[in-house]
Amino acid sequence: MPADHARRDPDHRIPPGTAIANGRYALGNHVRVGPFADVYDAVASGNGAPVSIHIVHREIASQPGATAAIAAAAERAAGLSHTHIARLLEIASQGQPFVVTELIEGDTLRALLARKSATSGGGFAATAAINIIAHVLAALDCAHARLAHGALGPDAIAISRSGHLRLIDFGLAAALPHAAHAGLLPDAHWVAPEVVAGGPVTPSADLFSAGALLYHILTGQPAAAGAAAASTQVPGIPTAVDDLIAHLTAADPRHRFASAADAQRAVASLGQGTAPAPRRPAPRAQPAPAPRPSLAESLAAPSAPAPASPSPSAAQRAEAHAASLANDTEEKWLVSQGKLDYGPFSLAQLVDRIRTDKLVAGDIVIDKDTGQRTAVEHHPLLGELVDAAAEKRRFRQRASAEMTQQKRERSRGKMLIAVIGVVIVALVGGGILVVNALSHSDEDSHIADMTVEEKGSVQAKISFPAATRHRSHHRSGKGHGKTLGYDDSMDMDMADEGGGSERLAPSDINPVIQQHGGALARCMTRTGSHHAFIEIIIQGSGKVSDVRVNSKTSGGL
Question: Which residue of 101, 226, 387, 547 has the fewest C-beta atoms within 10 A of its own C-beta?
């Protein structure tokens, strides 16, 4: 049986409950197969603490020098203490060497990339990739004071459900040459060329691996030799990311960053330039540069599509992601809303609550097992769904607002039509009243220059005085400035020097009566007047300066 098949054969796995290391640990479930070891959950017999145990593959342990290399590297790694490094507790042997670390929760980056590829056809969004690599470089900056990792591939990074990243396999990676010799590294595209050529593992080789991983995380494809730039593979990635990857993966180690700290600073500054706008409204004035989003938030960002397939919409990605969580029925989550906690819920149930707007941004999701509290919009498994649900709510609100506005406009239109109708009726009625009032005393009588010739028809004659001037009989107030009164003679542009007249046709009079006749009719009705003699003074410019009815400018008729 081939070695690679044998180590993946369930029949060769150690059954749960088996005690190892002289009974100090009791194995639990088999978790995964790594490039160097099989990983099991376990419990320390002394204090019941949960741990992870990595049992080195026989194909590696059987090679000369492999166990000694692992032991030496593990001894150096045991002193590492960093939030993004899985702490190494012990190295021992029972037929095969094994390494004990603190419990490693979550999935490897390889598993997460496979899940992303299955649901969206590509890799992670730029912010997620930048965050992952930034955390990796922070861990390497700590580790490189003691040792290089040596095997920084997608299996060497574990990310918990709350988004916490840790590097694993420190110490075990010393067996990299032995694993390659055994054929256990079929896709080691992340290994630096100098290491492939047989050179030693160095911090610079780790930086090469980080650059190769960044490419893989962004595109969903390994960084094979001659691969196209990431910006040409994924729309929206700036060319600055290509420059960063090229700097990390330079073939000559001298052309790479001098240290993980230098690379981390470059990635941090790049992260500020590629981070998306916040999900919640932020101050629109010029704020201070926002800190890089948490890894959990970044993992929730929509992933970029693969160039070979049509780009799925955010809604399609969310639906595919929701479908992938439908089978997770373990009720291990609580929801904190306000001052109350609800639950427990499974992930499938949380997805349903998000879809029905019962779980929204600002609510807190609590892992019962660890007590980890995460805002649902930042949760690596739920944040994308929260965004999609929020977008649907915004769409519904916009549609509702548009419908309400349309109803209001229709209502205003109907009201305007009704008002116009009433006004027209009132004006027409007022015009008839005026005509009737004017003709009430005598249908054949003539009222000065305005003659009522037939019911509803009025003609007006305006006489224009000659262009003469005489002293005004009216002054206003105490001032001495002349005011234009009714008795003042005026120059009329339309009159000749000898005076003249112009008769207005009914077509000129009737629209005015219809417009203002209602008010005149009401005034005549109140005063009991049967006629209205209207006098209009027009300046030479055409401006009406004075109007009198029955020689009055105000009061009753």
Answer: 226
Q: Within 13 Å and on the Cβ side, how many CA atoms surround 37?
A: 28
Where b means 16+ CB within 10 Å and e means fewer, 190-199 reads bbbebbeeee
Of 351, 267, 295, nearest to 158 by C-alpha is 295
Secondary structure letter of residue 376 according to DSSP: G
Neighbouring C-alpha atoms within 13 Å toward the C-beta of 319? 6
Per-residue CA distances from 494 to 396, 536, 542 (Å) = 65, 15, 9
Strands 364-367 and 25-33, by their bridges, are: unpaired
Q: Could you give the CA distance from residue 68 to residue 178 in angstroms, rounded to a whole number?
A: 12
Residue type, 138: A
Instruction: Indicate whether this model's pTM tops 0.70.
Output: no
314-324 helix and 109-120 helix, angle to the nearest 10 degrees:
120
pLDDT at 411 over 50: yes
Contacts of 427 (CB under 8 A, 6+ apart): 514, 515, 517, 518
Q: Is pLDDT of 410 > 90? A: no
Q: How far apart are CA 323 and CA 182, in angstroms?
A: 38
Residue 434 has pLDDT above 50, yes or no: no
Whether 154 has a pLDDT exceeding 80, the answer reads yes
Residue 485 burial (CB < 10 Å; 0-12/13-18/19+)? middle
Q: Any idea how long the chain is? A: 557
C-alpha–C-alpha distance, residues 131 and 7, integer Å:
33
Per-residue pLDDT tens digits for 275-291: 333 333 333 444 444 55
In degrees, to the nearest 5, what angle opens at C-alpha 25 toward C-alphas 20 and 26? 85
Look at 387 and 418; give whichever has higher pLDDT. 387
Secondary structure tally for the chain: helices H, strands E: 16, 19
pLDDT digits (tens, 9 = 90+) for 461-506: 444 444 444 444 444 444 444 333 334 333 333 333 444 444 455 5
Q: Burial letters for 325-353: b for 16+ Cβ neighbours within 10 Å, e otherwise? A: beebeeebbbbbeeeeeebebbbebbbeb
Are 234 and 122 contacting, i.e. CB atoms less than 8 angstroms apart? Answer: yes
Confidence category of residue 180, pLDDT binned at 50, 70, 90: confident
Q: What is the DSSP string of 149-197?
A: -S--SGGGEEE-TT--EEE--TTGGGGHHHHHHTT--TT-TTS-HHHHT
Structure tokens, 35: 């490039």
Task: Tell me the angle at which helices 260-274 and 126-143 cross, rounded to the nearest 10 degrees.
Answer: 160
